[in-house]
Amino acid sequence: MTDVHTKALSLTGRDAYQALSARRWIVLLMLVVGVCIALVGDLSTGPASYSLGDVVRTLVLPAKADAQMRVIVWSIRMPSALMGVVVGMALAIGGAQMQTILNNPLASPFTLGISAGASFGAALALAFGVALIPVAGDYIVAANAFVVAMATAFLIHLASLRRGASIQMIVLLGIALVFSFNTALAITQYFAAEQAVAAIVFWTMGSLTKATWPKLAITAIVVGVTLPVFLRRRWQLTALRLGEARAASFGIPVRRLRLETLILVSLLSAIPVAFVGTIGFIGLVGPHIARMMVGEDQRFLLPASALTGALIMSSSSILTKILVPGAVLPIGIVTSAIGLPVFLYLILRSGRDIW
Amino acid sequence: MLSTHHLGASFGSRQVLRDVTLPPCHGGEVVAVIGPNAAGKSTLFRRLAAILPGPGECRLEGVRDPDRAVAYMPQDQTASAVLTVFESVLLARKQVSGWRLEKSDLMAVDQALAALDMSDLANEILSELSGGQRQLVGLAQCLVREPQVLLLDEPTSALDMHRQLEAMRQVRRLAHDDGMLVLIALHHLDLALKFADKVAILYDGTLHDFGTAAGVLTPENLAATFRIRARVESCSQGKPHLIVDDAI
Amino acid sequence: MTEHRSLLHAAVITLVLIALLPTAAFAVEPGLTQTQAPVTLTDIAGRQVTLHAPVKRMLLGEGRQLYLIASLEPRNPLAHVVAWRTDLIAADPATYAQYLKVFPELAKLPSFRGQEDSLIDIESAIIQKPDVVLLNLEAMQANKDANYIEKLAALNIPVVYVDFRHRPLENTEPTIRLLGKIMGREARAEEIIAFRRQAMAAVANVLAAKQPKRANVFVERIGGYSQDCCLSFGAENFGKYVELAGGHNIGSDIIPSTFGQINPEQVIVADPAHVVVTSADWQAYVPGGHWIPLGPGADPRLTRKKLEWFTTRDAYTGIAAKKTQNFHGIWHQFYNSPYEFFAVQQLAKWFHPDLFADLDPNATFAEYHRRFLPIDYRPGYSVSLSDSQQ
């Protein structure tokens, strides 16, 4: 091989990579635009039919707007719309990292029992007023959900520490936990009063109407803190997808990395669930769609997952308002209705570029 | 320069490696590590790469950066992900070169691919490669880290004859021209004979013998460790070859 | 020899007579109960049921059936109840406490657990040897699936379906009549029905005559139980009560079934002139929550104060009800009891104070208690911030 020849080919490898990266940046940009459009759409949809111009004016100059419009846009629509974006991000990032550290395309906070645990915790509060940690009355449900969700994540971590614990074992444990918590939930519902049962059922279907500014702040902070931590570790995390042996051969402390990531993922899953109830499929489907668009490199996969999750949530929120005008349709129903066909498509598709 | 003292390792209650004391190996050498199945070759490499704990000591002297000096290529190269060859080699590079993506990283990847004649595979997705191609990717992932000690665990088992010889030639070049110390686990004793400067035979977790290829590949050693009746003889062109008569 | 035989005869006859005495005692039963006779009637589900009336051993498939039983037999409602389901104790502790005070033996009544509309424990039912099992209409499908009717019929235990919750306005009256028949209290049943009719007519007649405009009303269901806004009723239950009281329930247009949740924005858009919050003492479920502790014997100052919090809800910004302070609170359990006439009267008085200036719902309810119930009336079932105070 002559030097000239070598030089020509190296140019191709590097340039091709840079061209690929440029395409991916464009995809990210389009996702950002998409989320912005969906957000504005979410803010403009609602029983009070305000025009887009009115909404934008109220957003930009709140002091000059009509009092009722201001309250509706800022106090009612805004927290719920922003919560949708933030929760979508949290769930999708959590799902992406769970799939990464467990090297399993079916891993998500839903499938590992964290959401089911949260539902059970919430049910305890709604049915019996049981508070697992002493907090103000308003926050009992959320606190319970959070505590049980974190405990579940901790259980999964303990199991993964056992000698000979394979990834398959962890995933199976997660499934067992889902069944266990669902049973516990059924038992709770059996003993609960009628109104409590209705409240529990509604909670397990998830709803952005539970959003308040403090909840939004907490969730946003969690996302804002974990995302940079993940981005800092992006090369190590991406390497995990090459398999435990290969990653270890790179000198990556695989066990420790998994533990730290699991803790952060638990936070990312437990907090949104505690605040808005269980919302399924975002953590599973969001990362897969993102992966199809930008590949496995965490530099792109993380932001793309977050944005995809946010986009799905925002769009679902708009749909819930259009499908049943005036009433509140739990958003979990819509995300499942959208997510399930996509999920089935992913499973049945035999292409190579999805996992 | 690498040497070990009483290196050991165990899985649970099973002692897989016992008291392995390697005499000093220097940069510029190709050291073949041979032995029958379950002799402990992979375990030895994992001990040397410091990813498996155990008793004994592995001494590394004269290296620029002890943390980055050793690159280990494991035997299992079956993993696949939605990454291009370029990306996966870049991934290996970024484990040692800091958080930001620099131009030097991209160039290093190109060079590593070119060194292995893989530049045309740069844009292929990992999951679409053949077994042999994946092994080359694994090798590239080691080279791109610019190590001083290379631990290759059976890197040629899935390659065809031509590629095996090409790869071994590369390995020898890396050692003799670039000054790397290459420890390579091999099944094909002939390759050891052809390309290795030193040979270590592992048997049942211990170091059975160490020395030049001719000195180690004796009929006695081969009978004791591989349980075959074999001998090394020169062919009509005067090159030494291993002739295997029978299993014992 | 014959003397001995006669003595023997006399002894045998005496013994036999002594043995027959208890039987004779049974034949003539002292006390209130009349002799039983077979009766065929049609229950609320339209089934033909034959049983021995008046029944002596009733099994209540739902605790709340006690309210009606007590209305029909206030002196000793438990005389003919052999077992009941414990749902009342958890669902309406305030009323249960009232009954317990007057009838402490209620605590020892054989009971079985479970939801109102789930299956009763059939074994517990059978061992009590009831004359009749009273089941809620909502449980019908589950019972059909489990073949309970057939199983009980095999033991000659008839099942009667009643209802005062599923479609209270249609079924409560026939239920009362039905119960009156099987308890041998038909006259009293008619009295109760007449009272209820009159109470409802007091509202309906005035509305029919005056035809006032129907204001928009928002009913906030279980206010203070959860943080969500804004739970409400569809066209049934409280939604229906609002219509009967001369208002227009916003939820009726939006919520497809009986219970649901409305977007807070929608409430603002509908601009209700009245907000009715249904609530109760839920300290056990939501300690320190915003619920209003309405119910028998509630403290009016406390309930008023807790009602005031609801005016600060985002969902009520700028609505007509806020300007006129037409915020009202009412005991949530009216959604599930045979006393909806009180709710309708109270709602009517709030919605059209000028038309119903002479109507006194509290007095109506007090009279009902006096005439038909074994417990005293203790006001506290409603509260309002509007000028026409209760």
Map the helices and strands.
The complex is a heterotrimer of chains A (355), B (248) and C (390).
Chain A: H1 3-44, H2 52-60, H3 67-102, H4 114-128, H5 140-161, H6 167-191, H7 194-204, H8 213-232, H9 234-240, H10 244-249, H11 254-276, H12 282-294, H13 298-323, H14 331-348
Chain B: E1 2-5, E2 7-11, E3 14-20, E4 30-34, H1 41-48, E5 57-60, E6 70-73, H2 85-94, H3 103-115, H4 131-143, E7 149-153, H5 161-176, E8 181-185, H6 189-195, E9 198-203, E10 206-211, H7 213-216, H8 219-226, E11 228-234, E12 240-247
Parallel strand pairs in B: 4-8, 4-9, 6-7, 7-8
Antiparallel strand pairs in B: 1-5, 2-3, 9-10, 11-12
Chain C: H1 2-27, E1 37-42, E2 48-53, E3 58-60, H2 65-72, E4 81-85, H3 87-91, H4 93-102, E5 111-112, H5 122-127, E6 132-136, H6 140-145, H7 148-153, E7 159-162, H8 168-183, H9 186-210, E8 215-220, E9 231-233, H10 238-244, E10 247-249, H11 250-254, E11 259-261, H12 264-270, E12 274-279, H13 300-310, H14 320-324, E13 327-331, H15 340-351, H16 361-372, E14 382-384
Parallel strand pairs in C: 3-4, 3-6, 4-5, 6-7, 8-10, 8-12, 12-13
Antiparallel strand pairs in C: 1-2, 9-11, 13-14
Describe the structure.
Chain A contains 14 helices and no strands. Chain A is an all-alpha fold and 355 residues long. Chain A is globular, with a radius of gyration of 22 Å. The two termini of chain A are 35 Å apart. Chain B is α/β, with parallel strands linked by helices and 248 residues long. Chain B has helices at 41-48, 85-94, 103-115, 131-143, 161-176, 189-195, 213-216, 219-226, and strands spanning 2-5, 7-11, 14-20, 30-34, 57-60, 70-73, 149-153, 181-185, 198-203, 206-211, 228-234, 240-247. Chain B is globular and about 55 Å long. With 390 residues, chain C is an alpha/beta fold. Chain C has 16 helices and 14 strands. Chain C has helices at 2-27, 65-72, 87-91, 93-102, 122-127, 140-145, 148-153, 168-183, 186-210, 238-244, 250-254, 264-270, 300-310, 320-324, 340-351, 361-372, and strands at residues 37-42, 48-53, 58-60, 81-85, 111-112, 132-136, 159-162, 215-220, 231-233, 247-249, 259-261, 274-279, 327-331, 382-384. Chain C starts with a helix and ends in a 6-residue tail after the last strand. Classes of the chains: A mainly alpha (355), B alpha/beta (248), C alpha/beta (390).
Structure, briefly:
Chain B has 248 residues and is α/β, with parallel strands linked by helices. Chain B is built from 8 helices and 12 strands.
